[in-house]
Design a protein that fits this description.
Layout lengths: L1 H20 L11 H6 L9 H14 L13 H12 L3 E5 L4 E9 L3 E5 L6 E4 L3 E6 L7
Antiparallel strand pairs: 1-2, 1-5, 2-3, 3-4
């Protein structure tokens, strides 16, 4: 009889060990009144442990990609804004070597408007500009 009693706890401890090694997985359910009323269907989200494990596996599988620098630094916009506000006299040298004097009245993605005194104002396409500099500076390149 003593042997029969000893065998019962041994079986339970074996079951308890297996039970302890099992991992309980529960989906995270965010049920607020607005979410429940708005979404009448059930979402199948991975549990946080699985998401973390998947994220770690993705990181280890491939090296981290470097993020490309932003396409626009806004340096050009800042420069134009500053010259427009102070109405700085500018010299715009075109690709054919012609120099045009005036100040920048406005600009957009493709062109600038050069306001000139004593001559007609010009709208100049940016691809036609070789370089520009403030009048009075040495702009020879």
């Amino acid at each position: 009889m003593k042997d029969a009693l000893d065998s019962i706890p041994a079986e339970q401890s074996a079951d308890q060990e297996n039970f302890a090694n099992r991992k309980l997985i529960r989906p995270t359910l965010n049920r607020t009144g607005a979410d429940h009323a708005h979404n009448n269907h059930v979402h199948n989200h991975a549990p946080p442990e699985r998401r973390d494990r998947d994220r770690d596996r993705d990181r280890s599988a491939a090296p981290a990609k470097k993020v490309a620098p932003t396409e626009q630094t806004n340096a050009e916009n800042f420069y134009y804004q500053k010259q427009m506000q102070t109405k700085t006299p500018m010299v715009v040298v075109l690709r054919d070597g012609e120099e045009v004097h005036g100040y920048i009245e406005w600009y957009d993605k493709h062109c600038i408007k050069l306001n000139r005194t004593g001559s007609a104002n010009l709208v100049i396409y940016k691809p036609a500009i070789k370089y520009m500099f403030k009048e009075g500076e040495n702009g020879k390149k």
